[in-house]
């Protein structure tokens, strides 16, 4: 009886796909008759020199336009990064931050790349340090040496927006500061959970009162570390731990330091991946990218080690030359900001087929599970249409001045 049920199920799926093919043909004839333009011609017109692919749940190509053309992928590479992170780091992975003390009563904070070292986390850490018996600190020492000093990573130069924030082993609130002004024009913190530090006040001197804005702390590593030091000092004192020296100190851990507390982030790897995919957060992406290399080769994390590990994992997940070959996927970092990277629609559709068990990690927009990729002159969508027979992977890659990806996606949706 079970075998018959399975056979019927398979037959039903086959019948559904056959019906879908017939419906697509009827749809194409209808559109052609009404507009005088075949739908594939309209898709080709919208795609220009780009690519469009739509597959059935069983892998049958329903739409195929320039499938092997190598194009700039932008942020859609965060999908293979997600699967590499889950595979290489493991679903139970959590970022850590270590705290050391010495005989002089100093506290050294060694960052290990936690992207979610945010104000709420720092407040929780400070409370834990107090419960562990820490009552006073002479100097706070910042240690960001777990990442190489100048990672070979792309940044959005000339912008103060948060997506252009500098990666660092020790960064708070995504290496950004949220500034706001009261109705009277007075500077205040842009978020209730974060105090207005002296460094934030200095930074605000370059801005006029107006709407609240989150700005990144630039390429100078000392800027982010100063903000980190002042936030930690505030929350330590909130928890009854006095800090007697307010000056800024930066140093690496050595034999003079003793590990006092090892903090595991309250946020899981999946939490990090969800934030990265939902908001296309470039900072989280490359924090993960650098950490991949460190988990294999040790600290300090380097872009070279991260690249090697990434490309090895891509080959294991998707096949030969993935990560190194632009005809499938040339991937050099995690954010998608690099314009040197390349991907083909056929390469990305294969990634989507393998990624299907994790499809629900993608943001759902208008009933479509999708990830966008956007740079100047780059407008991409990839993901899954949800249809009667399951998930239909699709890829839209357009490297052109006009953004037609939404209209292309609507046309693909009408097919289902």
Give the gist of this structure.
This protein has helices spanning 2-35, 39-47, 78-88, 119-131, 198-204, 221-238, 269-279, 282-297, 303-318, 345-355, 405-414, and strands at residues 51-55, 61-65, 96-101, 107-111, 136-137, 140-143, 176-181, 187-189, 213-216, 242-243, 258-264, 324-325, 329-330, 342-343, 364-365, 368-375, 378-387, 390-398.
User: What CATH first level of the largest domain would be assigned?
Assistant: Alpha Beta
The count of domains is 2
Alpha-carbon distance between the termini? 32 Å
Helix fraction bin: 25-40%
H-E order: HHEEHEEHEEEEHEHEEHHHEEEHEEEEH
Strand tally: 18
What Rg do the Cα atoms give? Answer: 25 Å
Q: Under the CATH scheme, which architecture of the largest domain would be assigned? A: 3-Layer(aba) Sandwich
Sum up the overall morphology in one term. Answer: elongated
Structure explained in plain terms:
By secondary structure, the chain is an alpha+beta fold. It folds into two domains: 205 residues, 3-Layer(aba) Sandwich (Beta-lactamase), CATH 3.40.710; 172 residues, D-tyrosyl-trna(Tyr) Deacylase, Chain: A, CATH 3.50.80.20. Helix content is 38%, strand content 20%. It has a six-stranded antiparallel sheet, with helices on both faces. β16 and β17 form a beta hairpin. α2 packs antiparallel against α11 and α3 crosses α9. The protein is elongated. The chain starts with a helix and ends with a helix. The N terminus is likely disordered.
